[in-house]
Amino acid sequence: MLLLRRLIGVTLLVCLVIVALPYLGFFADPTFIGPFPKPLAIVLGANVVLTLCVIALYPLCFRPLQRKLDANPVEEV
Amino acid sequence: MTALPTLLILAGIVGILLSIAYLAARNSGGSQTTEDFVVGGRAIGTTVLLLSMGATYFSTWTLLGSFGAYFREGIWFAGFAVWTIFHGVFVWLFGTRIWLAGKRFGFITPGQMIEHYYDSKRLRLLSALVGITALVPVMLIQVSGGARALETLTEGAVPYALGVTIASLMVGAIVLWAGFRGTAWSDMFLGTFFAAIMIFTALYVLDLVGGLALFARVAEINPDLVTNPGKPTNMLELFLGLGFGAWVLPHMWQKFYSAKSAETLGKVAVATPFWNSWMMAIIPLIIGLAAVIPGVAPGVSRESSDTILPQIFAEHAPVLAAFVVAGILAAAISTINSQLLSSASLVAEDIWGGVRGRKLSDQESTRVTRLVVAGLTLLVFVLALTPGGAGHLVPVAALGFGLGLQLVPSALGILYFRRITEMGAFAGLLAGVISLLIVKFGGFTIGLGAGTTGIVANIAVTALVSLVTRPVSDASIENYHGMFARYMGADTKSQDAAAVDAPATAEAV
Question: ipTM for the complex?
Protein backbone atom coordinates (compact mmCIF):
# COMPACT_ATOMS: atom_id res chain seq x y z
CA MET A 1 0.00 0.00 0.00
CA LEU A 2 2.80 2.38 0.98
CA LEU A 3 4.62 1.53 -2.24
CA LEU A 4 1.51 2.27 -4.29
CA ARG A 5 1.06 5.60 -2.52
CA ARG A 6 4.64 6.53 -3.28
CA LEU A 7 4.16 5.46 -6.89
CA ILE A 8 1.14 7.76 -7.13
CA GLY A 9 3.16 10.62 -5.63
CA VAL A 10 6.03 10.11 -8.08
CA THR A 11 3.59 9.87 -11.01
CA LEU A 12 1.96 13.15 -10.00
CA LEU A 13 5.34 14.89 -9.91
CA VAL A 14 6.44 13.36 -13.22
CA CYS A 15 3.20 14.53 -14.85
CA LEU A 16 3.77 18.06 -13.53
CA VAL A 17 7.28 18.07 -15.01
CA ILE A 18 6.00 16.73 -18.35
CA VAL A 19 3.27 19.38 -18.50
CA ALA A 20 5.88 22.07 -17.76
CA LEU A 21 8.08 21.02 -20.70
CA PRO A 22 6.14 22.86 -23.45
CA TYR A 23 6.34 26.02 -21.32
CA LEU A 24 10.12 25.62 -21.26
CA GLY A 25 10.43 25.27 -25.03
CA PHE A 26 10.31 21.47 -25.38
CA PHE A 27 7.57 19.81 -27.50
CA ALA A 28 6.09 23.27 -28.08
CA ASP A 29 5.91 23.16 -31.89
CA PRO A 30 2.58 22.85 -33.74
CA THR A 31 3.15 19.36 -35.18
CA PHE A 32 0.22 17.02 -34.63
CA ILE A 33 -0.15 13.77 -32.70
CA GLY A 34 -3.40 12.39 -34.10
CA PRO A 35 -5.95 15.20 -34.10
CA PHE A 36 -4.15 17.15 -31.36
CA PRO A 37 -1.25 19.63 -31.59
CA LYS A 38 1.74 18.23 -29.71
CA PRO A 39 1.73 20.65 -26.72
CA LEU A 40 -1.97 19.99 -26.19
CA ALA A 41 -1.56 16.21 -26.61
CA ILE A 42 0.99 16.31 -23.78
CA VAL A 43 -1.39 18.17 -21.49
CA LEU A 44 -4.31 15.87 -22.35
CA GLY A 45 -2.18 12.74 -21.90
CA ALA A 46 -0.98 13.99 -18.52
CA ASN A 47 -4.55 14.86 -17.62
CA VAL A 48 -5.69 11.29 -18.25
CA VAL A 49 -2.89 9.90 -16.07
CA LEU A 50 -3.56 12.50 -13.36
CA THR A 51 -7.27 11.66 -13.39
CA LEU A 52 -6.45 7.97 -12.83
CA CYS A 53 -4.07 8.94 -10.00
CA VAL A 54 -6.78 10.97 -8.26
CA ILE A 55 -9.23 8.08 -8.62
CA ALA A 56 -6.61 5.75 -7.10
CA LEU A 57 -6.37 8.03 -4.05
CA TYR A 58 -9.78 6.80 -2.94
CA PRO A 59 -8.88 3.15 -2.25
CA LEU A 60 -5.28 3.94 -1.32
CA CYS A 61 -5.83 6.86 1.05
CA PHE A 62 -9.44 7.75 1.84
CA ARG A 63 -10.78 4.25 2.49
CA PRO A 64 -7.99 3.35 4.94
CA LEU A 65 -8.56 6.66 6.73
CA GLN A 66 -12.28 5.97 6.99
CA ARG A 67 -11.54 2.45 8.33
CA LYS A 68 -9.31 3.92 11.02
CA LEU A 69 -11.95 6.51 11.89
CA ASP A 70 -14.62 3.83 12.14
CA ALA A 71 -12.42 1.75 14.41
CA ASN A 72 -11.23 4.68 16.49
CA PRO A 73 -13.52 7.72 16.12
CA VAL A 74 -12.09 11.18 16.59
CA GLU A 75 -12.50 12.29 20.16
CA GLU A 76 -14.29 15.64 19.89
CA VAL A 77 -13.17 18.16 22.50
CA MET B 1 -32.05 39.49 -27.70
CA THR B 2 -35.60 40.32 -26.64
CA ALA B 3 -36.19 41.40 -23.09
CA LEU B 4 -39.23 39.31 -22.21
CA PRO B 5 -37.72 35.77 -22.38
CA THR B 6 -34.64 36.97 -20.49
CA LEU B 7 -36.69 38.57 -17.72
CA LEU B 8 -38.97 35.51 -17.50
CA ILE B 9 -36.03 33.12 -17.18
CA LEU B 10 -34.34 35.39 -14.63
CA ALA B 11 -37.60 35.47 -12.66
CA GLY B 12 -37.74 31.67 -12.85
CA ILE B 13 -34.17 31.40 -11.49
CA VAL B 14 -35.00 33.83 -8.67
CA GLY B 15 -38.10 31.77 -7.81
CA ILE B 16 -36.13 28.51 -7.74
CA LEU B 17 -33.40 30.05 -5.56
CA LEU B 18 -35.93 31.36 -3.05
CA SER B 19 -37.59 27.93 -2.94
CA ILE B 20 -34.22 26.30 -2.31
CA ALA B 21 -33.43 28.77 0.49
CA TYR B 22 -36.84 28.08 2.04
CA LEU B 23 -36.35 24.30 1.90
CA ALA B 24 -32.83 24.54 3.27
CA ALA B 25 -33.96 26.74 6.17
CA ARG B 26 -36.83 24.33 6.92
CA ASN B 27 -34.44 21.37 6.75
CA SER B 28 -32.28 23.03 9.40
CA GLY B 29 -35.20 22.89 11.83
CA GLY B 30 -35.62 26.61 12.40
CA SER B 31 -33.04 27.25 15.12
CA GLN B 32 -29.57 26.99 13.62
CA THR B 33 -26.44 26.75 15.74
CA THR B 34 -23.35 28.60 14.54
CA GLU B 35 -21.99 25.26 13.35
CA ASP B 36 -25.18 24.68 11.31
CA PHE B 37 -25.16 28.21 9.94
CA VAL B 38 -21.48 28.45 8.97
CA VAL B 39 -20.42 24.86 8.11
CA GLY B 40 -23.73 23.05 7.59
CA GLY B 41 -23.52 21.15 10.88
CA ARG B 42 -20.59 19.13 9.37
CA ALA B 43 -23.17 16.96 7.64
CA ILE B 44 -22.81 17.84 3.95
CA GLY B 45 -22.82 14.82 1.63
CA THR B 46 -20.83 14.05 -1.52
CA THR B 47 -23.04 15.44 -4.29
CA VAL B 48 -23.85 18.70 -2.57
CA LEU B 49 -20.25 19.25 -1.48
CA LEU B 50 -18.79 18.45 -4.91
CA LEU B 51 -21.16 20.72 -6.82
CA SER B 52 -20.91 23.43 -4.18
CA MET B 53 -17.10 23.45 -4.29
CA GLY B 54 -17.10 23.36 -8.09
CA ALA B 55 -19.71 26.10 -8.47
CA THR B 56 -17.94 28.27 -5.92
CA TYR B 57 -14.56 27.92 -7.57
CA PHE B 58 -15.86 28.59 -11.07
CA SER B 59 -17.23 32.09 -11.30
CA THR B 60 -18.37 34.43 -14.05
CA TRP B 61 -14.75 34.29 -15.11
CA THR B 62 -15.24 30.68 -16.27
CA LEU B 63 -18.38 31.49 -18.24
CA LEU B 64 -16.84 34.57 -19.82
CA GLY B 65 -13.10 34.94 -19.27
CA SER B 66 -11.72 31.44 -19.80
CA PHE B 67 -13.27 31.17 -23.29
CA GLY B 68 -11.60 34.45 -24.16
CA ALA B 69 -8.28 33.31 -22.71
CA TYR B 70 -8.23 30.27 -25.04
CA PHE B 71 -9.34 32.46 -27.96
CA ARG B 72 -6.44 34.89 -27.37
CA GLU B 73 -3.71 32.59 -26.02
CA GLY B 74 -4.60 29.31 -27.72
CA ILE B 75 -3.37 26.04 -26.21
CA TRP B 76 -0.88 27.91 -23.99
CA PHE B 77 -3.74 28.30 -21.55
CA ALA B 78 -4.36 24.50 -21.43
CA GLY B 79 -2.15 24.32 -18.32
CA PHE B 80 -5.34 25.52 -16.61
CA ALA B 81 -6.73 21.98 -17.00
CA VAL B 82 -3.80 20.53 -15.06
CA TRP B 83 -4.01 22.88 -12.07
CA THR B 84 -7.67 22.11 -11.67
CA ILE B 85 -7.03 18.34 -11.54
CA PHE B 86 -4.67 19.01 -8.64
CA HIS B 87 -7.64 20.35 -6.67
CA GLY B 88 -8.59 16.67 -6.20
CA VAL B 89 -5.11 15.88 -4.87
CA PHE B 90 -5.32 18.85 -2.50
CA VAL B 91 -8.52 17.43 -1.02
CA TRP B 92 -6.40 14.52 0.22
CA LEU B 93 -3.22 16.43 1.06
CA PHE B 94 -4.87 19.31 2.89
CA GLY B 95 -8.66 18.92 2.99
CA THR B 96 -8.76 15.73 5.05
CA ARG B 97 -6.36 17.14 7.66
CA ILE B 98 -8.37 20.37 7.91
CA TRP B 99 -11.57 18.32 8.24
CA LEU B 100 -10.04 16.05 10.89
CA ALA B 101 -8.80 18.92 13.07
CA GLY B 102 -12.04 20.86 12.53
CA LYS B 103 -14.12 17.90 13.62
CA ARG B 104 -12.02 17.20 16.70
CA PHE B 105 -11.88 20.76 18.00
CA GLY B 106 -15.16 22.11 16.57
CA PHE B 107 -13.61 24.88 14.44
CA ILE B 108 -15.76 26.83 12.02
CA THR B 109 -13.19 29.37 10.74
CA PRO B 110 -9.56 28.88 9.63
CA GLY B 111 -8.50 31.50 12.22
CA GLN B 112 -9.74 29.36 15.10
CA MET B 113 -7.42 26.55 14.05
CA ILE B 114 -4.52 28.97 13.58
CA GLU B 115 -4.98 30.44 17.07
CA HIS B 116 -5.39 27.01 18.67
CA TYR B 117 -2.29 25.52 17.02
CA TYR B 118 0.06 28.51 17.29
CA ASP B 119 -1.49 29.87 20.51
CA SER B 120 -1.54 33.26 18.80
CA LYS B 121 -4.37 35.79 18.68
CA ARG B 122 -2.37 38.17 16.46
CA LEU B 123 -1.79 35.50 13.80
CA ARG B 124 -5.50 34.65 13.85
CA LEU B 125 -6.38 38.33 13.42
CA LEU B 126 -3.84 38.88 10.64
CA SER B 127 -4.91 35.76 8.74
CA ALA B 128 -8.57 36.80 9.04
CA LEU B 129 -7.76 40.27 7.70
CA VAL B 130 -5.81 38.80 4.80
CA GLY B 131 -8.64 36.34 4.11
CA ILE B 132 -11.28 39.06 4.03
CA THR B 133 -9.11 41.38 1.96
CA ALA B 134 -8.76 38.53 -0.52
CA LEU B 135 -12.49 37.76 -0.66
CA VAL B 136 -14.48 41.00 -0.42
CA PRO B 137 -13.19 42.72 -3.59
CA VAL B 138 -13.66 39.48 -5.53
CA MET B 139 -17.31 39.44 -4.44
CA LEU B 140 -17.71 43.01 -5.63
CA ILE B 141 -16.23 42.19 -9.01
CA GLN B 142 -18.55 39.20 -9.36
CA VAL B 143 -21.60 41.40 -8.78
CA SER B 144 -20.47 44.29 -10.95
CA GLY B 145 -18.98 42.06 -13.67
CA GLY B 146 -22.06 39.87 -13.86
CA ALA B 147 -24.41 42.87 -13.93
CA ARG B 148 -22.37 44.62 -16.60
CA ALA B 149 -22.37 41.46 -18.75
CA LEU B 150 -26.13 41.17 -18.35
CA GLU B 151 -26.62 44.78 -19.41
CA THR B 152 -24.39 44.39 -22.47
CA LEU B 153 -25.78 41.05 -23.59
CA THR B 154 -29.41 42.10 -23.23
CA GLU B 155 -28.64 45.43 -24.93
CA GLY B 156 -29.94 47.29 -21.89
CA ALA B 157 -33.05 45.17 -21.30
CA VAL B 158 -31.58 44.19 -17.92
CA PRO B 159 -29.97 47.47 -16.79
CA TYR B 160 -26.78 47.38 -14.72
CA ALA B 161 -28.58 48.55 -11.56
CA LEU B 162 -31.20 45.79 -11.90
CA GLY B 163 -28.49 43.13 -12.34
CA VAL B 164 -26.66 44.40 -9.24
CA THR B 165 -29.92 44.45 -7.29
CA ILE B 166 -30.95 40.92 -8.31
CA ALA B 167 -27.51 39.46 -7.54
CA SER B 168 -27.19 41.28 -4.18
CA LEU B 169 -30.73 40.48 -3.06
CA MET B 170 -30.44 36.83 -4.02
CA VAL B 171 -27.09 36.33 -2.36
CA GLY B 172 -28.12 38.18 0.80
CA ALA B 173 -31.45 36.33 1.01
CA ILE B 174 -29.96 32.86 0.52
CA VAL B 175 -27.15 33.36 3.03
CA LEU B 176 -29.22 35.18 5.67
CA TRP B 177 -32.17 32.84 5.43
CA ALA B 178 -30.53 29.47 5.13
CA GLY B 179 -26.81 29.85 5.91
CA PHE B 180 -24.35 27.25 4.66
CA ARG B 181 -26.97 24.66 3.76
CA GLY B 182 -28.91 27.14 1.60
CA THR B 183 -25.68 28.27 0.02
CA ALA B 184 -24.59 24.72 -0.78
CA TRP B 185 -27.97 23.66 -2.11
CA SER B 186 -28.30 26.73 -4.32
CA ASP B 187 -24.72 26.13 -5.55
CA MET B 188 -25.77 22.63 -6.53
CA PHE B 189 -28.64 23.95 -8.65
CA LEU B 190 -26.68 26.86 -10.13
CA GLY B 191 -23.62 24.71 -10.87
CA THR B 192 -25.71 22.08 -12.64
CA PHE B 193 -27.45 24.83 -14.58
CA PHE B 194 -24.33 26.46 -15.99
CA ALA B 195 -22.59 23.10 -16.49
CA ALA B 196 -25.53 22.03 -18.68
CA ILE B 197 -25.10 25.19 -20.74
CA MET B 198 -21.39 24.48 -21.21
CA ILE B 199 -21.82 20.82 -22.22
CA PHE B 200 -24.60 21.68 -24.65
CA THR B 201 -22.50 24.43 -26.23
CA ALA B 202 -19.40 22.22 -26.55
CA LEU B 203 -21.33 19.43 -28.31
CA TYR B 204 -22.99 21.97 -30.57
CA VAL B 205 -19.78 23.70 -31.68
CA LEU B 206 -17.93 20.38 -32.11
CA ASP B 207 -20.68 19.30 -34.48
CA LEU B 208 -20.44 22.65 -36.24
CA VAL B 209 -16.67 22.53 -36.84
CA GLY B 210 -16.30 18.83 -37.72
CA GLY B 211 -15.42 17.27 -34.36
CA LEU B 212 -11.74 16.89 -33.56
CA ALA B 213 -10.82 18.45 -36.91
CA LEU B 214 -11.23 21.61 -34.85
CA PHE B 215 -7.51 21.80 -34.01
CA ALA B 216 -6.33 21.29 -37.58
CA ARG B 217 -8.72 23.99 -38.78
CA VAL B 218 -7.47 26.38 -36.08
CA ALA B 219 -3.87 25.61 -37.12
CA GLU B 220 -4.70 26.58 -40.72
CA ILE B 221 -6.21 29.88 -39.61
CA ASN B 222 -3.69 30.85 -36.91
CA PRO B 223 -0.78 28.42 -36.25
CA ASP B 224 0.30 30.48 -33.24
CA LEU B 225 -2.77 29.28 -31.35
CA VAL B 226 -1.63 25.64 -31.50
CA THR B 227 1.95 26.49 -30.51
CA ASN B 228 3.10 26.94 -26.94
CA PRO B 229 5.03 30.24 -26.80
CA GLY B 230 6.48 29.50 -23.35
CA LYS B 231 6.07 32.35 -20.84
CA PRO B 232 6.74 29.94 -17.92
CA THR B 233 6.66 32.60 -15.19
CA ASN B 234 3.19 33.71 -16.30
CA MET B 235 1.97 30.13 -16.11
CA LEU B 236 3.67 29.65 -12.73
CA GLU B 237 1.91 32.73 -11.35
CA LEU B 238 -1.44 31.40 -12.56
CA PHE B 239 -0.70 27.91 -11.21
CA LEU B 240 0.27 29.19 -7.78
CA GLY B 241 -2.61 31.64 -7.49
CA LEU B 242 -5.54 29.85 -9.09
CA GLY B 243 -4.35 26.29 -8.57
CA PHE B 244 -2.24 25.91 -5.46
CA GLY B 245 -3.73 28.85 -3.58
CA ALA B 246 -7.37 27.78 -4.01
CA TRP B 247 -7.57 25.29 -1.11
CA VAL B 248 -6.35 27.78 1.49
CA LEU B 249 -8.95 30.49 0.83
CA PRO B 250 -11.30 30.75 3.83
CA HIS B 251 -14.49 29.75 2.00
CA MET B 252 -12.90 26.61 0.54
CA TRP B 253 -11.31 25.77 3.92
CA GLN B 254 -14.77 25.95 5.52
CA LYS B 255 -16.17 23.63 2.87
CA PHE B 256 -13.68 21.01 4.07
CA TYR B 257 -15.03 21.50 7.62
CA SER B 258 -18.55 20.89 6.34
CA ALA B 259 -17.96 17.36 4.99
CA LYS B 260 -19.96 14.60 6.59
CA SER B 261 -17.07 12.09 6.65
CA ALA B 262 -13.62 11.31 5.27
CA GLU B 263 -15.33 9.06 2.75
CA THR B 264 -17.37 12.05 1.55
CA LEU B 265 -14.17 13.98 0.95
CA GLY B 266 -12.74 10.96 -0.88
CA LYS B 267 -15.68 10.80 -3.26
CA VAL B 268 -15.44 14.56 -3.83
CA ALA B 269 -11.73 14.16 -4.67
CA VAL B 270 -12.46 11.38 -7.17
CA ALA B 271 -15.13 13.45 -8.93
CA THR B 272 -13.08 16.68 -8.89
CA PRO B 273 -11.01 15.99 -12.06
CA PHE B 274 -14.17 15.36 -14.06
CA TRP B 275 -15.93 18.51 -12.84
CA ASN B 276 -13.03 20.93 -12.39
CA SER B 277 -10.77 19.89 -15.25
CA TRP B 278 -12.55 17.96 -17.97
CA MET B 279 -15.68 20.08 -17.82
CA MET B 280 -14.66 23.51 -16.54
CA ALA B 281 -11.24 23.69 -18.23
CA ILE B 282 -11.39 21.46 -21.32
CA ILE B 283 -14.84 22.57 -22.50
CA PRO B 284 -13.79 26.25 -22.58
CA LEU B 285 -10.75 25.10 -24.62
CA ILE B 286 -13.04 23.57 -27.25
CA ILE B 287 -15.43 26.53 -27.36
CA GLY B 288 -12.73 29.21 -27.17
CA LEU B 289 -10.72 27.71 -30.03
CA ALA B 290 -13.82 26.94 -32.11
CA ALA B 291 -14.69 30.63 -31.97
CA VAL B 292 -11.59 31.28 -34.11
CA ILE B 293 -13.19 29.41 -37.00
CA PRO B 294 -15.27 31.68 -39.25
CA GLY B 295 -18.99 31.30 -38.79
CA VAL B 296 -18.92 30.02 -35.22
CA ALA B 297 -18.90 33.34 -33.40
CA PRO B 298 -18.91 36.08 -36.04
CA GLY B 299 -17.84 39.47 -34.84
CA VAL B 300 -15.76 38.24 -31.91
CA SER B 301 -12.37 39.95 -31.71
CA ARG B 302 -9.55 39.83 -29.17
CA GLU B 303 -11.13 42.80 -27.44
CA SER B 304 -14.60 41.25 -27.28
CA SER B 305 -13.43 37.67 -26.72
CA ASP B 306 -14.94 37.56 -23.23
CA THR B 307 -18.39 37.45 -24.82
CA ILE B 308 -17.80 34.33 -26.95
CA LEU B 309 -20.44 32.19 -25.27
CA PRO B 310 -23.34 34.64 -25.59
CA GLN B 311 -22.18 35.56 -29.11
CA ILE B 312 -22.38 31.90 -30.17
CA PHE B 313 -25.92 31.66 -28.82
CA ALA B 314 -26.92 34.97 -30.34
CA GLU B 315 -25.74 33.70 -33.75
CA HIS B 316 -26.97 30.10 -33.71
CA ALA B 317 -29.75 29.79 -31.14
CA PRO B 318 -31.06 33.21 -30.12
CA VAL B 319 -34.04 31.62 -28.43
CA LEU B 320 -31.66 30.01 -25.90
CA ALA B 321 -29.53 33.11 -25.35
CA ALA B 322 -31.59 34.06 -22.29
CA PHE B 323 -30.37 30.87 -20.60
CA VAL B 324 -26.76 31.98 -21.07
CA VAL B 325 -27.58 35.32 -19.51
CA ALA B 326 -29.18 33.53 -16.55
CA GLY B 327 -26.16 31.20 -16.44
CA ILE B 328 -23.83 34.17 -16.00
CA LEU B 329 -25.89 35.39 -13.06
CA ALA B 330 -25.95 31.82 -11.70
CA ALA B 331 -22.16 31.64 -11.87
CA ALA B 332 -21.82 34.98 -10.05
CA ILE B 333 -24.28 34.13 -7.27
CA SER B 334 -22.85 30.64 -6.70
CA THR B 335 -19.39 32.13 -6.17
CA ILE B 336 -20.36 35.10 -4.03
CA ASN B 337 -22.68 33.34 -1.59
CA SER B 338 -19.95 31.12 -0.13
CA GLN B 339 -17.48 34.01 -0.01
CA LEU B 340 -20.04 36.22 1.71
CA LEU B 341 -20.85 33.66 4.40
CA SER B 342 -17.17 32.94 4.92
CA SER B 343 -16.20 36.62 5.17
CA ALA B 344 -19.02 37.25 7.64
CA SER B 345 -17.96 34.35 9.85
CA LEU B 346 -14.35 35.62 9.82
CA VAL B 347 -15.50 39.06 10.95
CA ALA B 348 -17.81 37.62 13.63
CA GLU B 349 -15.57 34.89 15.03
CA ASP B 350 -12.01 36.03 14.37
CA ILE B 351 -12.26 39.82 14.48
CA TRP B 352 -15.31 40.63 16.63
CA GLY B 353 -14.59 37.69 18.95
CA GLY B 354 -10.94 38.79 19.10
CA VAL B 355 -11.88 42.38 19.97
CA ARG B 356 -14.25 41.16 22.73
CA GLY B 357 -11.43 38.96 24.04
CA ARG B 358 -13.71 35.99 24.70
CA LYS B 359 -15.42 33.18 22.84
CA LEU B 360 -18.82 34.22 21.53
CA SER B 361 -21.86 32.21 22.54
CA ASP B 362 -23.65 30.26 19.84
CA GLN B 363 -26.54 32.71 19.57
CA GLU B 364 -24.27 35.74 19.73
CA SER B 365 -22.00 34.36 17.00
CA THR B 366 -24.90 33.49 14.66
CA ARG B 367 -26.48 36.91 15.30
CA VAL B 368 -23.24 38.77 14.56
CA THR B 369 -22.60 36.61 11.48
CA ARG B 370 -26.09 37.40 10.14
CA LEU B 371 -25.58 41.12 10.82
CA VAL B 372 -22.25 41.08 9.04
CA VAL B 373 -23.80 39.20 6.09
CA ALA B 374 -26.41 41.95 5.82
CA GLY B 375 -23.75 44.66 6.20
CA LEU B 376 -21.39 43.15 3.63
CA THR B 377 -24.24 42.60 1.16
CA LEU B 378 -25.21 46.25 1.53
CA LEU B 379 -21.58 47.34 1.17
CA VAL B 380 -21.09 45.31 -2.01
CA PHE B 381 -24.42 46.60 -3.37
CA VAL B 382 -23.57 50.25 -2.68
CA LEU B 383 -20.00 49.96 -4.00
CA ALA B 384 -21.22 48.23 -7.16
CA LEU B 385 -23.64 51.10 -7.79
CA THR B 386 -21.07 53.82 -7.07
CA PRO B 387 -19.83 55.29 -10.36
CA GLY B 388 -16.33 53.92 -10.83
CA GLY B 389 -16.34 52.37 -7.37
CA ALA B 390 -16.01 48.86 -8.66
CA GLY B 391 -13.47 49.94 -11.24
CA HIS B 392 -11.09 51.22 -8.56
CA LEU B 393 -11.20 47.86 -6.86
CA VAL B 394 -10.41 45.80 -9.94
CA PRO B 395 -6.64 45.78 -9.30
CA VAL B 396 -7.28 44.72 -5.72
CA ALA B 397 -9.65 41.97 -6.83
CA ALA B 398 -6.99 40.64 -9.18
CA LEU B 399 -4.79 40.26 -6.13
CA GLY B 400 -7.37 38.14 -4.30
CA PHE B 401 -5.89 34.74 -5.07
CA GLY B 402 -2.34 36.07 -4.65
CA LEU B 403 -3.22 37.34 -1.18
CA GLY B 404 -4.93 34.08 -0.30
CA LEU B 405 -1.77 32.25 -1.36
CA GLN B 406 0.14 34.03 1.41
CA LEU B 407 -1.82 32.00 3.99
CA VAL B 408 -0.23 28.76 2.74
CA PRO B 409 2.96 28.66 4.92
CA SER B 410 1.00 29.25 8.17
CA ALA B 411 -1.45 26.52 7.14
CA LEU B 412 1.35 24.13 6.20
CA GLY B 413 2.82 24.61 9.67
CA ILE B 414 -0.40 23.19 11.12
CA LEU B 415 -0.84 20.45 8.56
CA TYR B 416 2.73 19.27 7.82
CA PHE B 417 5.74 21.24 9.03
CA ARG B 418 5.94 21.19 12.81
CA ARG B 419 9.14 23.27 12.79
CA ILE B 420 7.26 26.39 11.61
CA THR B 421 6.93 28.66 14.64
CA GLU B 422 4.33 31.28 15.51
CA MET B 423 6.86 34.08 15.02
CA GLY B 424 7.99 32.54 11.71
CA ALA B 425 4.41 32.20 10.41
CA PHE B 426 3.50 35.75 11.50
CA ALA B 427 6.63 37.37 10.07
CA GLY B 428 6.36 35.32 6.87
CA LEU B 429 2.72 36.30 6.30
CA LEU B 430 3.54 39.97 6.84
CA ALA B 431 6.58 39.76 4.53
CA GLY B 432 4.56 37.98 1.85
CA VAL B 433 1.74 40.52 1.87
CA ILE B 434 4.13 43.49 1.89
CA SER B 435 6.24 42.03 -0.95
CA LEU B 436 3.13 41.37 -3.01
CA LEU B 437 1.91 44.94 -2.53
CA ILE B 438 5.33 46.40 -3.39
CA VAL B 439 5.51 44.46 -6.65
CA LYS B 440 1.90 45.21 -7.58
CA PHE B 441 1.74 48.88 -6.69
CA GLY B 442 5.37 49.96 -6.30
CA GLY B 443 6.62 48.83 -9.69
CA PHE B 444 9.53 46.89 -8.16
CA THR B 445 10.02 43.42 -9.64
CA ILE B 446 12.42 40.48 -9.48
CA GLY B 447 11.06 39.00 -12.71
CA LEU B 448 8.23 37.12 -11.04
CA GLY B 449 4.58 38.02 -10.65
CA ALA B 450 3.25 39.73 -7.52
CA GLY B 451 1.75 36.60 -5.95
CA THR B 452 4.84 34.49 -6.69
CA THR B 453 7.20 37.15 -5.30
CA GLY B 454 5.04 37.33 -2.18
CA ILE B 455 5.07 33.60 -1.58
CA VAL B 456 8.84 33.35 -2.20
CA ALA B 457 9.47 36.10 0.38
CA ASN B 458 6.91 34.55 2.70
CA ILE B 459 8.51 31.09 2.61
CA ALA B 460 12.03 32.52 3.03
CA VAL B 461 11.09 34.66 6.05
CA THR B 462 8.96 31.90 7.59
CA ALA B 463 11.85 29.42 7.32
CA LEU B 464 14.55 31.79 8.59
CA VAL B 465 12.58 33.16 11.54
CA SER B 466 11.36 29.68 12.47
CA LEU B 467 14.98 28.52 12.70
CA VAL B 468 15.75 30.95 15.52
CA THR B 469 12.47 31.18 17.42
CA ARG B 470 10.59 29.01 19.89
CA PRO B 471 8.70 26.06 18.36
CA VAL B 472 4.99 25.53 18.98
CA SER B 473 4.06 23.68 22.15
CA ASP B 474 4.34 19.93 22.53
CA ALA B 475 0.59 19.82 23.14
CA SER B 476 -0.03 21.39 19.71
CA ILE B 477 2.40 18.97 18.07
CA GLU B 478 0.60 16.02 19.64
CA ASN B 479 -2.90 17.40 18.99
CA TYR B 480 -2.26 17.94 15.31
CA HIS B 481 0.78 16.14 13.95
CA GLY B 482 0.31 13.23 16.36
CA MET B 483 -3.31 12.86 15.28
CA PHE B 484 -2.45 13.12 11.57
CA ALA B 485 0.27 10.45 11.97
CA ARG B 486 -2.13 8.09 13.74
CA TYR B 487 -4.96 8.42 11.26
CA MET B 488 -3.21 9.21 8.01
CA GLY B 489 0.02 7.26 8.14
CA ALA B 490 0.63 4.45 5.67
CA ASP B 491 -2.05 1.79 5.89
CA THR B 492 -0.26 -1.30 7.13
CA LYS B 493 -1.99 -3.89 9.30
CA SER B 494 0.16 -3.11 12.32
CA GLN B 495 -0.56 0.62 12.01
CA ASP B 496 -4.27 -0.07 11.69
CA ALA B 497 -4.13 -2.06 14.87
CA ALA B 498 -2.07 0.63 16.55
CA ALA B 499 -4.67 3.22 15.59
CA VAL B 500 -7.45 1.09 17.04
CA ASP B 501 -5.52 0.39 20.22
CA ALA B 502 -4.23 3.91 20.65
CA PRO B 503 -4.21 4.64 24.36
CA ALA B 504 -6.63 7.20 25.65
CA THR B 505 -3.77 9.32 26.87
CA ALA B 506 -2.52 9.78 23.34
CA GLU B 507 -5.91 11.07 22.25
CA ALA B 508 -6.44 13.28 25.23
CA VAL B 509 -5.82 16.97 24.76
Answer: 0.94
